[in-house]
Structures are given as C-alpha cells and as structure tokens.
Amino acid sequence: MRKFLVAMTLTLMGATFASAGVWETTCSNCHGKIAPSKEQLLAKFRTPKELLSAAKKKVKEGRMPSQLAFGIAARELFSKPVRTAAITKGTQDFRKFFTPLPALPPIPKDNSLTPVKVKLGKMLYYDPRLSRSNLISCNTCHNLAIGGDDNLKSSRGDHWRTGGRNAPTTLNSGFLRVQFWDGRAPTLEEQAKGPLQAHVEMNSTPELVVERLKKIPTYVKLFKEAFPNEKDPVTFENVVKAIAAFERTLNTPNSPFQRYLLGDDNALTPVQKEGMKLFVKYGCIACHNGPVLSDGMFHRFKSNDDTGRYRVTKNPADKYKFRTPQLLNVAVTAPYFHDGSAKTLGEAIKRMAQQELGKTLSDSDVEKIKAFLESLTGEVPLEARTVPQLP
C-alpha cells in the first residue's frame, strides 16, 4: 500500500497529455515497476471508491498530501483497459521523469527583478555590517564559492551560537515552494528576515540594519535607484526585497544532468545513467521531482529530537516532518539532512533508502546513484560568486 501511495503521489503530480488519460500517460510509468501493477490494484480494490477510501485514510494519518486529485486516475483504472509499457533496460528514455531547470524562478509582482536591485542585493548579501557583530554576512553561512552553504553540521552565528539545523543552500532557492526546513517562510523575502534577526545567527534588528545603512551614502543612493518611487527607500522591507532579488539569480545551469535533459545524450556517463534509472526504479523521484528535484512538501524523517514542521503548525501530524531538500548541487553541500548527521553522500543515500523506502541498497547501487547525483552539480554564476567591493 505504501508503494502504491508514493507512486500515486508522483504520477499525479506530473503533466498529462490532452489526447490520453492520466493512467495511460503517467501512472503506467511507475505501476508494475516500482508500484503495484494495474492487475494487483484491481484485485485488491473492487471499486474506485474503495481505492480512494484507502488513500484518504493515509491523508488523515498525515502520510499523503491532501491536495492531490487522484480520483480521475482511479476512475480510469476501473472503467477501461489501460496500457502499461514495460521499462526495458537500455531503451527507456528516463528524461520524461525529470524537468529541466528554467532560466529564472517565478518573480513576485511586488518585487521586480531589476539590475540595480540585484546589484544592491548582492552587496547586502556579502555585507557583514548587517549583523550586530559586524562579522557575519549571509555569505558566511551560505557561501556561494562552496555550494551556497557552509559545509558545517550546523552554522555558527553570533557569539558562536548555533541553531541546531544544517544550513540549506541558497542556490536555486527561488524555485522552492517554501523556505527553511520547516517551511515557516513562504517566500525568499520572508526567509531573509529570519537570519538577520535570529539571535543564534546575525542577531540584528530592523532598526539597527536601517540605521547603519542610512549612514553609508553609496547605499542610500543605490536604494533610491532600486526603489525609485519611494520617498524613504532605505527600509528593512526593501533590504530583504533586494537580497531576495539577488538570490533569484543564483541559479545553476549547465550541469551534465541539465545538458542531458536538453538533448545531449553524451552529457552523462554510462554509470550516471544507470544511477538515474535506479533513482526512478527505487522511487526516490516520488519526492525528489520538479526542476530542483524537490516536491516542496513535508515528509516524516526522524533523525533526532527536532520535531520539524510541528514547531510551526503545532499539528501532531506534522511531528518530525521536514521539507524535501532540493538535490541540485547536492554533491557539494555535505553534510546532509536537517541535522547534518550524514557526513557523506553515500551515507545519505543509504539512510534515505532504509528510512523512507524500506530498502537496503547494495554498495554498487549506492555508487551508481551517487554518480547520478554528482551530475546535478551546475555552474554558479561568476558574477554572483565574485565578492563585491563594499562602500
């Protein structure tokens, strides 16, 4: 049942074609391979209502997202014959399971992406004077030269304090549905407010940030250019808007994987292609899908006493749930998981397979999947990782 629900989640999140049904164009890609076949489903459930009832039960248990519309596929399954194309090793094109990274993430209506705003945001991102100690910048914990994080189990902030969670990368973060491991910030703008004020991070205040910036003529000039219609543009809201605008340019194209998705058959090695097939076969793609290989949803992953999403919602069903991490550039962002408890990528792959999929992978399969994940490393824009001259 668990395999069925995971696969149903995956397949119904994918795109379908107007000329064919949901089951035929999407569900059949997984069922009979990494999930029960149509024959097994028809033998277990007598009607679409029974099947949907079982799925709804999992929704109530917090093991199934409530917003998925899988009724259409269930009705198709029971109403007409469906085709199930077998995956044949060496002939299946696995590109259809993945989404190429767009040039830019969605841009909010109230924070347009202009060159001067991006320039200002970059300077603020690198400027330690936004912190109380004048020592910590956004780049301190989200270093763009080493993968958009700090490669520490948990970042060190003001007075060497730590918040206990691993710093996610800021690369490609504009494509995420929510920010932070527990999803407490819906946008990059809201996310930027957190570290600036958190006592275990930059330990500043909106008033202190604005006070310091207003004393620097170059910043005052840039704020006026970036927010030309405002009488007093040097505000905390505009600080986070500028930083968020810059972060939306931190996208990493041209990875071997992206080149493969766009048609370069030779961009991946044979081992990486085998790893990609295993990534789909074992069901990793059920949660790791979309342009940054994250469904943006919350899944239970108990690693320590951190209750995750529950801290935000206070809903018992959210205990130990964390947002699916993106996988682009994952090979350069060790250690892994919300607590940084997995030191290596191979260890992370083994633990995920055991805890989330109930599978024990061979060393050979781990190495193949690891090789595939290494192909997701793209290019950080040179302009973004060049430290700016601060005023």
Automatic annotation (TrEMBL):
Native source species: Desulfurobacterium pacificum
PANTHER family, A to Z: CYTOCHROME C PEROXIDASE-RELATED
Annotated GO MF terms: peroxidase activity
Keyword Transmembrane among UniProt keywords: no
InterPro entries linked: Cyt_c-like_dom (IPR009056), Cyt_c-like_dom_sf (IPR036909), Cytochrome_c_Peroxidase/MauG (IPR051395), Di-haem_cyt_c_peroxidsae (IPR004852)
Keyword tags: Heme, Iron, Metal-binding, Oxidoreductase, Peroxidase, Signal
Record Pfam families: CCP_MauG (PF03150)
Keyword Signal: yes
Protein name as catalogued: Cytochrome c peroxidase
Signal sequence annotation: 1-20
Segments forming domain Cytochrome c: 270-377
